Amino acid sequence: MGEAPAFFADNLMGDFPKKVDSKSKGNETAIVVGSKIYVIDGVDHGSGSTIGVRIFDKSSGEWRIPTVLGTKPKPSKDYSAVLLNDDLMLVVRGNSGSSECFWFLEVGTPFVRQHEKTLGNEVVAWSKGVLGNVEKPIVISGPSGVGKGTLISKLMKEFPSMFGFSVSHTTRAPRAKEQNGIHYHFTDRNVMEREIKDGKFLEFASVHGNLYGTSVEAVEVVADAGKRCILDIDVQGARSVRASALEAIFIFISPPSFEELEKRLRARATETEEQIQKRLQNALAELEQGKSSGLFDHILVNDDLETCYEKLKNILCLREAAKSAPKTLPESFNLSIEHSMSKIDQKLLINCGAAEHENASNNTYILDLSSLKGGSPGRTRGLNIRCRELEPL
Ligand SMILES: Nc1nc2c(ncn2[C@@H]2O[C@H](COP(=O)(O)OP(=O)(O)O)[C@@H](O)[C@H]2O)c(=O)[nH]1
Ligand SMILES: Nc1ncnc2c1ncn2[C@@H]1O[C@H](COP(=O)(O)OP(=O)(O)O)[C@@H](O)[C@H]1O
């Protein structure tokens, strides 16, 4: 039998006005979820260290060390945690700016449960909170040579600040004009297989004899830049993303005819005859699945390029999005160690420590949690924060 975390055992009903749900002692913060106590350890163990999580099971009296997935926050002296529901907590990291201060710890989400089954161990997963209303990622699939890359390039060129490309990993060799880190992360099969085992990939598939995959990081980098992520992945990958927490719009690009597809693939002149044959063979199954699986929200026929591109922009509501108001993030927001929090419905009131400020409301923020999107693996988007002075509760 182990011992319950001291600060819970000492004073389970204690008065801890500084925290909403969590109780802290030293660098540790604990929060109760059902019969378990999750202890978040913020001790800095040297350069590159991240915070740890351990679980005390009250019913068995045992400590457990879970497998921790996702990008972890860096250590800090002060964390506060709020339970949002039975499988999700918001962990606020003190003494940090808006891009590093909101984190979600998932303890029972479908993503966590799925990994518990495969790993045979208790799992928790981190997801960093991203401020602002970044739109859903876009998954684009379709057979080789249909024009996916051409359409995506047009979109990125016309709206460079709005879209970011998810750079996949692949074991296939680079083509003449392809650059590592821009078109793909070109990698060895054994390295990629190991990273897949380590849970670094959101999805992966074997396509035309090579491994392709989207790393969690590839999607996170785009979300962190406040951009909408575009994924160019095959139908198997689209199916995996559909089953994941990454809510996305799924678009299938279809050719006007099989003959035209073959013509484009040959005209591109990037593959050997053998590779072209393999791609054409696979195209038959991909077209069948793309059109009949119900997986895709939209099917676009890429006959005339400009017409197809206009339709794509319509689907993505680009004119409306371009007109929407810019994000209003409090640039100076910095959560001090002295902060306190209280939760009212889907809103969290955060007081960043009034000691050095004459007007306390200047230093109080409202964090709106009502439109959270995404989650591990990847970022949790849709967090909105504003100064209380500007907008009362
Ligand atoms: N599942 C999955 N498929 C990918 C990924 N990256 C690329 N693909 C797909 O792999 C297939 C082959 O891509 P590529 O070798 O670049 O050839 P291309 O489609 O002819 O340009 C295409 O269907 C891509 O959509 C990925 O990360 N995951
Ligand atoms: N609508 C279109 N009409 C004619 N050629 C096209 C069209 N869309 C793309 N192409 C050409 O077809 C070839 C394959 O396009 P690409 O974007 O590389 O396909 P994918 O990324 O789906 O494999 C390229 O040479 C491209 O210039």
TrEMBL record:
Q: EC number(s) per UniProt?
A: 2.7.4.8
Say if the entry is tagged with keyword Nucleotide-binding.
Answer: yes
UniProt entry keywords in alphabetical sequence: ATP-binding, Coiled coil, Kinase, Nucleotide-binding, Transferase
Question: Does the keyword section mention Coiled coil?
Answer: yes
Report the family membership. Answer: Belongs to the guanylate kinase family.
Cellular component GO terms, alphabetical: cytosol
- Family matches, as HAMAP family: Guanylate_kinase
Which range is the signal sequence, renumbered to this chain? none
Stretches assigned to coiled coil: 266-293
Q: Which GO terms describe its molecular function?
A: ATP binding; GMP kinase activity
This one is known as Guanylate kinase 1
A Pfam family (short name) is: Guanylate_kin
